[in-house]
Design a protein that fits this description.
Helices cover 31% and strands 15% of the residues. It is an alpha/beta fold and 100 residues long. The chain has a four-stranded parallel sheet with strand order 3-2-1-4.
Length: 100
Amino acid sequence: MLDAGTGTGRMLELLAPYFKRGIGIDVSPEMLAIARDRLGNAGAFNCQVRRGDVYRLPFADGEAKSGFDAVLFHQVLHYLDDPQAALREAIRVLNRAGGS
């Protein structure tokens, strides 16, 4: 699962029991530091956070093994200048095999 614009990582923390691997992307180093602490304190060791831009996700096009089964934008799209571009980018990295 990819949490695009993860902020404090709260959604990763809440959803961690329901997926094998979660990655949060955010442009803010400060928010990522908070997210890392939150996830560590919660024991969500199946999650990681990285600095990245929702308009240029640092992942290859979705393929059977490497794409994401889900992309989450929680309280993010309404802050973006071009939410459609972010959604197109999310679609690009989705797993086209229908899940794993």
